[in-house]
Amino acid sequence: MKSESNSNRPQLSRRKVFLFKIGAILFALCIIVAFEFALRLVDYGTDYSLVIQDSSDDSKVMINPQVSKKYFSNVSSATSGIPTSFDKKKNPSTTRIFILGASTGIGYPYRYNGGFHNWLDYGLQRSYPSQRFEIINLSLTAVNSYTLLDFTNQLVDYQPDAVLIYTGHNEYYGALGVASTNSLGNNPWLVNVFVKLKTFRMVQLISNSFSRIKNSQKSDTMGNETLMKKMVKDQSIAYDSDVYKEGIHQFESNLAAILKTLDKQQIPTFLSTIVSNIKDVKPFVSDTLNHSMSAKEWFNTGKENYISGNFDGSKKAFIKAKELDMLRFRAPEQMNVIIDSMASNYSNVILVKSYDAFVKKSPQGIIGDELLLEHVHPNVKGYGILGFSFYKALLSSSLIKFQPEHNLNFNEFYDQMPITVLDSVTGNYEILMLKEGWPYYEAIPKVQSDSLSIPEVIAGRLAIQTINWDDASKSLFQHYSENGDDENALKVLEAVALKHRTNATFFEQAGTISAKLGQSQKTAFLYKKAYLIDPSIDLAKRISRNLIENGEFKESLIYLEAIKKQEPDNVFAAQLHTISKKIIDLQANEFRIKTDPSIGIELAENFILIGNTDKASLYLKTVLEFHPSNKKASELLIKISSNGNS
Prior knowledge:
The protein has about 650 residues and is mainly alpha-helical. It is about 55% helix and about 5% strand. The protein contains 26 helices and eight strands. The chain has helices at about 1-40, 105, 115-125, 145-155, 190-195, 200-215, 225-230, 240-265, 295-310, 310-325, 335-345, 355-360, 380-395, 410-415, 420-435, 455-465, 470-480, 485-500, 505-515, 520-535, 535-550, 555-565, 570-585, 595-610, 615-625, 630-645, and strands at about 50-55, 60-65, 85, 95-100, 130-135, 160-165, 270, 350. The strands form two sheets. A five-stranded parallel β-sheet has the order 5-4-6-7-8, with helices on both faces. Helix 4 (about 145-155) runs parallel beside helix 8 (about 240-265), helix 9 runs antiparallel to helix 10 and helix 24 (about 595-610) packs antiparallel against helix 25 (about 615-625). The longest helix is centred in the first third of the chain and has 40 residues, at about 1-40. The radius of gyration is 32 Å and the shape is globular. The N and C termini lie far apart (about 135 Å).
């Protein structure tokens, strides 16, 4: 009996140990859950959801303004994106496009209409004025593929019709990058797990505690440094070194996960190659020990070859210099190789060849200051090229099921985009401020204030933020209007309409000036946009009246018919509709006035009915030119003249 009892004890002990372990685990989990609940109860931490409810409109959601803090260990370095609100329930007729990227995706340094997403938006509106587009830009400054992957995992829930991606430059120094000050290591899987866990308040508490300890140990002078410098931990990353390879691996791994997620959901994805300034930006950090690996020496070789006319050798040397630049603000060439390769691996990914477009538009095919402001950010024309690259890719795809009313070529796309001095001057000022600090250290040139034009003064006030964009636009519009500069006044109104794209008034006002300038195609586009936003009788009446006054009879019929449909007893609209149709028919035969004076007389009579006596006089004079004795034409002309003089 004793031996049997003893033999049972180990078995009983193991069961108890197992149950104890299970109980301990469950208890620990209960403590964790309770602690997490308590932290949420006292409102500790941050909701890091990509999208939150728009507090001003129950039918809309908005991009969470706090979301960037999820990726920065020092939340004071966290950047802000473009405040965007969109319909919670997507309109079936709307094409919803998400954009993923970093500072170039935002459009830095052009804070208003200069970014490529605005160029794209304008191009799509011009090509499809009767269609609805929602372009939701999720780009954030100083982030990389880790942030983009986390965004991708969430945006698929918001019914995207397409996703546009421009990324690759920030893999080393962007948030969580392998060489950044808030790096979490070189294992993409572990970093992505941490990013997911950071939605928990307890993880935020631990992370914030470590960050406070870490930040307290830093020099106080860090507070005066630019974000560029704050984000850089390793300023010397040698070509083909372990850290260099880790940055490429990080990009390749995360990009593959992004594209796999989107492809699985069958979401069309437009993936762009990226560009760098190789001709006019000297290497920031060069190897001083190995001559053959010296970025500075290769850059000088590139300059010498360029001056001598050896452009092929120059381009190769410039690329080599960029590759050997140890401060890796410009992506290695391998990033574009990965982008190109990845695009061919997935059926729903379309390669956008932006790099090729920049090369084509650059002197001697070497990208430099002609299109870029510094090392990676495009100037106004550069953003136009980037926007046009995405625009052509979208139009060439099967994404949009309608035929474009107007397929813009690059010159039309570039010339008609409403970029004003408010964009260009403020953007240039931002770049001067950037280059004043590390790693450029270029002094800001002095400007004589008395040499500035009034538009430049207004833009300058906006640049130093003593006036907001809307007020600056109003002042600029008033200046152009008072000086009779309708072309620039129209551009300002179009810029305002692009920013406030749900306000029909700006499109209508722009259409009125465009009609005055005789820009028929643009007038039709602007009025269509206004009426799409506000299909009211009052707006239809104003638009039709303006179109008739400016001789756009064919376009006026659209709005007159809408009025007749909603107000069948509207005699005035019916009369205008009859007159407009009559004028259209008669003008198609006005070449016959030489043999049939009644055509010219009838045209004159109809123009008199709508109050356009100038046009009536022209037709009557044409009749009398061919038929000097025509009594009716003479009497009508005398009557018009006498009424005008009385």
